[in-house]
Amino acid sequence: MMAFRFVRSLAPAALFTLAQACAPLPNAARPVTALAPEALPAAEDMGVVTAADPRAAAAGAEMLRLGGSATDAAIAVMLALTVVEPQSSGIGGGGFLVTADAAGKVESIDGREMAPAAATPDWFKVDGKVLDHSDAVPGGRSVGVPGNLRLAALAHARGGKLPWRVLFGPAIRLASDGFVITPRLASTLGFASDIAGLDPAGRALFFGADGMPLPVGTVVRNPALAATFEKIAALGADSFYLGDNAKAISAKVGTSPRNPAPMSTADLAAYKAVPRDPICARYRVWRVCSMGPPSAGGVTVLETLGALERFDLKGMGPASPTAWHLIAEAERLAFADRDTWLADPDFVPVPTAGLIDPAYFAARSALISDTATIDSAAPGKPAGASDRFAMAAPIPEYGTTHFAAVDRWGNAASYTSTVESAFGSGLMVGGYYLNNELTDFNLDPMRNGKPTANRVEAGKRPRSSMSPVVVYGPDGHLRLIAGAAGGYTIPPQVIRVIVGTLDWNLTAREAIAQGIVMPAPGVLAVEAGTPLAAMVPALQALGHPKVIAVPMRLKANAIEWVPGTDGKNHWVGAADPRSEGAAASP
User: Fold this and answer.
1) 227: part of which helix (H) or strand (E)?
2) pLDDT score recorded for residue 1
3) Pick from 149, 176, 127, 201: which is nearest to 425 by CA?
4) Alpha helix segments (H runs only) across 66-124
5) Residue 186 near residue 215 (C-beta atoms within 8 A)
6) Inter-residue long-range contacts of 374-381, CB under 8 Å, 24+ positions, other chains counted
């Protein structure tokens, strides 16, 4: 965990949660230009894909070229990322998908991981004491029933055009023919080697005979994963949740050398992806839609934007410390609500409608000043809120990936996928890593004598910061599709992209590339190495007692509909220049 310790040395203890999520790449492992190409414009009749890895973006573009839908492309990207970005996502994890069509219809699917039937609120207590997060992650106890393939199957049934088996072609080729270890993967193998190499299969795949992670440029072949994909391509998602694969997951979790825990084959067989109503709100003249609970990210994004609407951000511009102060203050209030009210709506009464009500936006916005800070960002009391639950401390979240696609019919898919920490639980089955998503629950189920809404319960899905969004313009046309990775930083990253493109008239790539200012427990964090770092004194003058510049390992992707030099509008994809991401067109 060298990179994490490095960031920790730059920040106080109150910032450590953020620092873990934002650990920087060592200078020697910065993405090379060839792996982070400029955004690629695509002709409007063909579509575009953007993802955190160019090989995954190419997989999605291949589906579009074959006549596939945005949903087909997004599924192919998810499968390819299982191979080339195993530290962040894959079929051993879960995700949230928001789809939008050219007529304005928005749908969302919850493929979040689920706690096994044996789980209790005291799941992370050992000898009466709550495990530290770092001790809870490795091994079986942190693993939730994976959701990505059930999500993919449901999405394909609703919006796919190509045969199911075709979607697996690029991922199978990458796994069987081999893929090159990139600087970002090599860096992550270095600082998360204890997790990546926890399982003998992971050690054999990514470590040399000397026990060291394989270097940049090494070609890795994963025949076990290719075989897994071949079977699922032929037999469907059921072959993952039933039969030999389900038995292998159950056995791996139950016999793990670290934190073994019960997960039965019945737990896997019972898993269902859940269609959820998307959440939408107006921001100025735009309609912004995202994923509702158990995602907390969508609510956080919409609530923040709603609180900002009365301020003239456009007039202030991206170089204004006041603008970033206002954004951070709105986020502080939204995070307080997030940590109190948001959880799996199938288990607790989540006041979603109250949190995104325009009257509630206005009430929260009234607490914000453009010349001073809020003394204490306490949770509000939206309509439908219950007094039963206590506010809990923010939960460390790390990995994740986001990708998006638009097809030739103007339909879009915005998909955020994760295995949680780097390489998840460290356990590997069939060539893929199993998630550690259960550590997204509050490990301690109680706070101040009250239960927390996001405590562990059997069959429950943990709260998430994932925030896939789609934005429609005043003309009813899709304007922006966006999302991000990085745990607690995800909502601020997405907000930055929305404000940057809509208020500040930046391109999506420019909006992603700009720095970030965001609240963290006890401090205001500014991304080091960006022009925003020079704002530290000005932000302190606005009343923020602790403002700290810290390196951040951010990763966002977006697609926008913008005028081209030919006088016509086009889809343009953008990827974070901090990452190895890319946009690709058919």
Assistant:
1) helix 223-235
2) 32
3) 201
4) 70-84
5) yes
6) 374/329, 374/332, 374/333, 377/329, 377/332, 377/333, 377/335, 377/336, 377/519, 378/336, 379/336, 379/337, 379/339, 379/340, 379/341, 380/333, 380/336, 380/337
For position 399, what pLDDT does the model report? 63
Task: Classify each residue of 307-322 as buried b or exposed e, where b means 16 or more C-beta atoms within 10 Å of its C-beta.
Answer: bbbebebeebebebbb
The structure tokens 């709105």 sit at 330
| pLDDT class of 513 with cuts at 50, 70, 90 | very high
542-569 mean pLDDT: 92
Residue 73 exposure: Cα atoms within 13 Å on the Cβ side: 35
How many residues are given for the chain?
586
Mean pLDDT of 184-192: 96
Q: Which of 409-418, 422-431, 564-573 has the lowest mean pLDDT?
A: 564-573
Question: Quick one: pLDDT band at residue 9, thresholds 50, 70, 90?
Answer: very low
Q: Are 12 and 536 in contact (CB under 8 A)?
A: no
| Tokens (6 digits) for 184 | 């970002």
CA distance linking residue 335 with residue 315, whole number of Å = 26
Rounded mean pLDDT of 138-155?
A: 98
DSSP 113-182: -B--TT--TTTTEETTEEPPHHHHSSSGGGPPBP-HHHHHHHHHHHH--S-GGGGGHHHHHHHHH-EEPP
Return d(Cα 366, Cα 362) in angstroms, integer: 6
From the list 225, 235, 237, 228, the residue with the least C-alpha distance to 174 is 225
pLDDT tens figures, 315-357: 999 999 999 999 999 999 999 999 999 999 999 999 999 999 9
d(CA 46, CA 39): 16
Q: Is the peptide bond before 294 cis (omega within 30 degrees of 0)?
A: yes
Total-model pTM: 0.92
Q: How far apart are CA 84 and CA 56, in angstroms?
A: 8
- The single residue of 400, 401, 418, 452 carrying the catalytic annotation is 400
Give the DSSP H or E segment for 404: strand 401-406
Rounded CA gap, 14 and 31, in Å?
29
**First-to-final CA distance of the chain:** 39
Q: Is the pLDDT of residue 563 over 70?
A: yes
Residue whose entry in the numeric block shows the structure tokens 């990546």: 196
What single string gives the DSSP state of each residue in 24-47?
A: PPPGGGSPPGGGSPPP-EE-TTT-
How many whole angstroms separate alpha carbon 100 and alpha carbon 559? 13
Q: Is the Cβ–Cβ distance between 441 and 100 less than 8 Å?
A: no
Q: What is the pLDDT confidence band of residue 398, given thresholds at 50, 70 and 90?
A: low
Distances (CA, A) of 104 to 48, 271, 342, 476: 19, 30, 27, 7
Q: Provide the pLDDT for residue 391.
A: 54
Q: What percent of the chain stands above pLDDT 70?
A: 90
Concerning whether 400 is annotated as a catalytic residue, the answer is yes
123: closest CA among 137, 138, 142, 107? 142
Packing angle of the helix pair 321-341, 358-365 (nearest 10 deg): 120
CB count in 10 Å sphere of residue 494 = 30
The token pair that represents 277 in the structure block: 């109503």
What per-residue confidence (pLDDT) applies to 243? 97
Asked whether the beta carbons of 401 and 52 are under 8 A apart, the reply is yes
